[in-house]
Amino acid sequence: MTSRLGDLPIELFLNITSFLRHEDLSVLVRVSKAVHRVIQPLIWTNIELHPPEYHEKYDYLEARLEMGSTYRAYHAKRPGEEWQDAFDYEQKSRSFVELCEYLLQSNPARLTELTTQVRSLCLVVDTYADEEPTRSCWNIFARFTNLESLEITGKWSWYNEFVAFDGTASPLTKLRVARIYGYVPREFIQYVLCSGSSLTKLEIGTLDAPISSSRFGDDRLNSPPGYSDPYESDSDDEAVPFGFRAEDLALESDEEDLDENEVAPRPLIWVPDSLDQCQFLSLTSLWLCKPSEAHIGHGNWHYYTPTHSVRSDRRSLVDWVRLVRAVIPTLVNLTFEHRLVGPEIESESTTSKEFIEIYGYGPGDERFKELVLPMLEEEVSWPALKRLAFYGILVGKKAPQGVKEKVTNHFSSLGVDVQFYLGKRMLFVPEEGTVCISADGMGSSSDSSGDV
Predict the structure, then answer these.
(1) Bridge partners, residue 339, by sequence
(2) How far is residue 362's CA from residue 428's CA, in Å, rounded to a whole number?
(3) What does each C-alpha distance from 397 to 393, 405, 406 come to in angstroms?
(4) CB contact at 8 A, 293 and 426
(5) Sequence-ordered alpha helix ranges (H) in 150-286
(6) 8 A C-beta contact, residue 157 and residue 128
(7) Helices and strands in the chain, H and E counts
(8) What residues pair up with 434 in beta bridges, in sequence order?
(9) Strands 46-48, 120-125: parallel, antiparallel or unpaired by DSSP?
(10) Helix (H) or strand (E) holding 292
């Protein structure tokens, strides 16, 4: 008599499935209802759509240690297909998002049935070129109501328009960990912040809409705020580029002229005007990341002068201060990170480490000294803080040592471990204004993926 899978003891059956790939489980789930009940949670509880060992390779060592022994449900490669690169896994993310979008429109009950099983979700939102002109990819995440960990990297899309995120969606009340990088709409980030009462770890490094080179004239891919395009449509369609609302784009005043040949990536202004709606009762770890202006007077980079949005940079730093002040009582780990911005051609002549050492300590550091350091030097109580880290800030050959020593001495007297790291650079495509394709969506080159 042939034994059936459904008749096996559950412990033995689960042990067998631990050796199977996700593709095998997706086939096995169709065998019977009994098998389906066991297999479906294995597929949907923890979703990790990055290549195997992605986080071990690209995350900072300190960040990995802070995350602890986090289980990563990587999709194993098939035997003989170890050559598969990150593109194959980005296709997995793309297919996953498209499936959820389809179910959101065609069968929302089924989408809810599946998404409520998910406890951790880590993926790249990369729409690529799609036949559908309007996407609603950001609204699917509000359906993952039982999420405890959400890690998203957003890529820029020139191809599609997006339905703006519905900020009235019910908050993710069980969310504990949120890591958001790249091009992600402001409304979605603020929605995540509304889960503040349960959040214990928040890590954000996001970018505003890129501005392409003025050399393209009327054919430029994306114009700066305040730019008048004679061919621009007056349509009132609900879909907007990248999911930004008109009032969001209007936040950028035309007082700052960004109609230049090359405009560096700008930090997204994502902190709400009022933090009263964000109840950060449990936040112990905060990691804040943004692009930073290099010192082009150093080295041989004097011929290249990208335009940086000083207004965006200053407002971002002011918002950092507001957010940190709001969570001081519970903070255990606080990290500030600057990604020093450079053109993609720099990858041919310098490593990330060389670039930061040569061009480090630029105008971005001066603004950090002016707007953030005074808050850190205040005589206030940091009751829970154990670690303060800086990446890409006050580093490089020209960085003044006295400033670092002052910060270190102040917090060491409070029993806080203070560390400064070179960090990673941010490479971008000057013609398009977008960051170069990278593992974390923030333009870091492959040579900067280690613990620097």
Answers:
(1) 291
(2) 18
(3) 12, 16, 18
(4) no
(5) 186-193, 246-249
(6) yes
(7) 14, 14
(8) 429
(9) parallel
(10) strand 285-292
* Residue burial 311-344, b: 16+ Cβ < 10 Å; e: rest: bbbebbbebbbebbebbbebbbbbbbbbbbbbbb
Q: Which long-range contacts (CB under 8 A, 24 or more apart) does 20-25 make?
A: 21/75, 21/76, 21/78, 22/73, 22/75, 22/76, 23/75, 23/78
The pLDDT score that the predictor gives to residue 322 is 94
pLDDT beyond 90 at 445: no
Chain position carrying tokens 């580029």: 241
Confidence of residue 199 (pLDDT cuts 50, 70, 90): very high
Query: Distances in Å between the alpha carbon of 255 and those of 184, 210, 307, 311?
Result: 25, 18, 14, 9
Dist CA 46 CA 91 (whole Å)? 18
Torsion-angle region of residue 242: left (phi > 0), alpha (psi -120 to 50) or beta? left
3-state SS, residue 295: coil
**Residue 72 to residue 163: CA distance in whole angstroms:** 31
How big is the CA angle at 392 (ends 121 and 53), to the nearest 5 degrees? 35
**Alpha helix positions (H), 22-85:** 22-28, 33-44, 54-58, 61-67
User: Average pLDDT, whole number, for the chain?
Assistant: 80
Cα 316 to Cα 368: distance, rounded to the nearest angstrom: 10
Strand positions, DSSP E, 173-280: 177-182, 201-206, 239-241
User: Which is higher by pLDDT, 216 or 260?
Assistant: 260
For residue 131, what pLDDT band results from cuts at 50, 70 and 90? low
Rounded to a whole number of angstroms, the distance between the first and last alpha carbons of the chain is: 61
Both tokens of residue 221?
């891919």
Q: Which of 203, 443, 239, 235 is nearest to 341 (CA)?
A: 443
Report the length, in residues, of the chain: 452
Which residue pairs, CB below 8 angstroms and at least 24 apart, start in 78-86? Answer: 78/21, 78/23, 84/51, 85/51, 86/50, 86/51, 86/54, 86/439
